[in-house]
Design a protein that fits this description.
By secondary structure, the protein is an alpha/beta fold. Helix content is about 35%, strand content about 20%. The chain is built from eleven helices and 14 strands. The chain has a six-stranded parallel beta sheet, sandwiched between helices. Strands 10-9-7-11-12-14 form a six-stranded parallel beta sheet, sandwiched between helices. Strands 8-13 form a two-stranded antiparallel ribbon. Helix 3 links the parallel strand 3 and strand 4. Helix 6 runs parallel beside helix 7 and helix 9 packs parallel to helix 10. The longest helix has 17 residues. It starts with a strand and ends with a helix.
Length: about 325
C-alpha cells in the first residue's frame, strides 16, 4: 500500500484565502489518502510591497511558518497556494524540490504563469494557458460531508426553525461595492417582507468586511424574525446555515460565498449592493451561475427551483491527480 500524499497548504492566513487552498487539498483527500499541513506566511513590512521577483525567504516575518522542509524531511507531493503573498515561494518550489513537488496556485497569479504545474483560476478572470484550469468561482471547503459534520452543534437551534429557512450571507465594502447603512436597511426590509410572506425564518451572518452601520441596520430590522443572527461570538454557524437553508441570499460582492452557496444545490439569490466601479468579473460570475441554473437576482420574493449542485472544487482535485500521473 502506497503512503498517503503529503500536501502543503500555503497562504497569508486570511480565512478567505486559506480556505481556497485548504478546500482544494481536502477535496484531494476525499479522493485519495493524504496528509495536509497548513502553512501561513507573511512578509516583513519593509519588504511586503516589493515585486515578487525580488522577494526571498529571509524576508519573511519571523512569525511565518517554514516553507521549506526541515532537515531530513522531504518536499511535499503537492504544494497548493493562494494569494499574492505566496507567489515568490510557489514560483521556486518546482526547481527547489527537484521536480518532486506538484505546484498548484489558485487565482490568477499574473506573474510567471509557467512556473506552476497547475493554475486553478475562476473562469471570470479569463486567464488561459496549457496549465490553467478554469472553474466557476473559486475552490472552497463546502462539501456535503463538511456541512453535515459542522451542523451537528447547531441542530437544536436550526432544525426546528420554520421553513423556508433562509440563509443570508452578507459581505461589505470592497473596491467594487459598498454597503451603506441606508442601503443595508432597505435591503433588510426587502428580506424581511419576503420571509414574512413565506412564513419562514432567517439565518444571518456577516463578513469581516461588513461596515458597522450596515450590520446594525440589518440586525435592527431583522431581529424580530424567527431564526439566528450570528454576532461573531462563539462557534461559526456558516456551514450549518448552508446545510439547513432552503434558500441562500448572497451579496454580490463575494465570488467565494456565491460559489459556496451554489455547491449546495439550494436556490441562490443575489443581493444588490452599491457599485463603486464597473465590476465586470462579478457580472461574468453571476451570469455563469445563472446559466448553470444556480443563481438569480433577488427581486423581493423567495423562488424555489432545483439544479445540479456545482462540484467545481472536486473537479479541480480530480484534474490535479490526473495531471500528476502524467507528469
Amino acid at each position: 500500500m502506497s503512503a498517503p500524499l503529503s500536501i502543503w497548504v500555503v497562504s497569508d492566513g486570511r480565512i478567505g484565502m486559506e480556505n481556497q487552498a485548504l478546500g482544494l487539498a481536502e477535496a484531494v483527500q476525499r479522493l485519495t489518502p493524504a496528509d495536509i499541513s497548513v502553512r501561513r506566511i507573511r512578509w516583513r513590512k519593509v519588504f511586503d510591497k516589493l515585486p515578487s521577483a525580488l522577494k526571498t525567504s529571509w524576508m519573511l516575518d519571523l512569525s511565518s511558518d517554514s516553507t521549506e522542509p526541515a532537515s531530513g524531511e522531504a518536499w511535499p507531493d503537492i504544494w497548493i497556494a493562494t494569494g499574492r503573498a505566496t507567489l515568490p515561494m510557489s514560483a521556486r518550489v518546482r526547481a527547489a524540490s527537484g521536480g518532486r513537488t506538484f505546484v498548484v496556485q489558485t487565482q490568477d497569479p499574473r506573474w510567471r504563469t509557467a512556473a506552476y504545474d497547475l493554475i486553478v483560476a475562476p473562469a471570470h478572470d479569463r486567464i488561459e494557458g496549457p496549465n490553467v484550469l478554469s472553474i466557476t468561482g473559486s475552490p472552497h471547503r463546502v462539501a456535503p460531508e463538511r456541512l453535515a459534520e459542522n451542523s451537528a452543534a447547531f441542530a437544536d437551534q436550526l432544525a426546528a426553525l420554520p421553513s423556508p429557512r433562509v440563509a443570508a450571507l452578507i459581505g461589505g465594502r470592497s473596491r467594487a461595492f459598498d454597503l451603506t447603512g441606508d442601503h443595508a436597511a432597505d435591503l433588510a426590509g426587502r428580506i424581511a417582507r419576503a420571509i414574512e410572506a413565506a412564513n419562514g425564518s432567517l439565518m444571518l451572518t456577516f463578513s469581516r468586511r461588513t461596515p458597522a452601520a450596515a450590520k446594525a441596520a440589518m440586525t435592527a430590522r431583522l431581529a424580530h424574525l424567527p431564526g439566528l443572527i450570528w454576532d461573531g461570538a462563539g462557534a461559526n454557524p456558516y456551514f450549518a446555515f448552508l446545510n439547513f437553508a432552503d434558500h441562500v441570499l448572497v451579496t454580490e460582492d463575494s465570488a467565494n460565498m456565491a460559489a459556496e452557496a451554489a455547491s449546495t444545490g439550494k436556490p441562490v439569490l443575489i443581493l444588490p449592493m452599491i457599485p463603486l466601479k464597473p465590476a465586470d468579473k462579478f457580472a461574468r460570475l453571476h451570469a455563469n451561475l445563472r446559466e448553470r441554473g444556480a443563481a438569480r437576482p433577488f427581486e423581493g420574493s423567495l423562488e424555489a427551483w432545483s439544479y445540479a449542485p456545482l462540484d467545481e472544487t472536486a473537479r479541480a482535485a480530480r484534474t490535479m491527480l490526473e495531471r500528476m500521473k502524467r507528469a
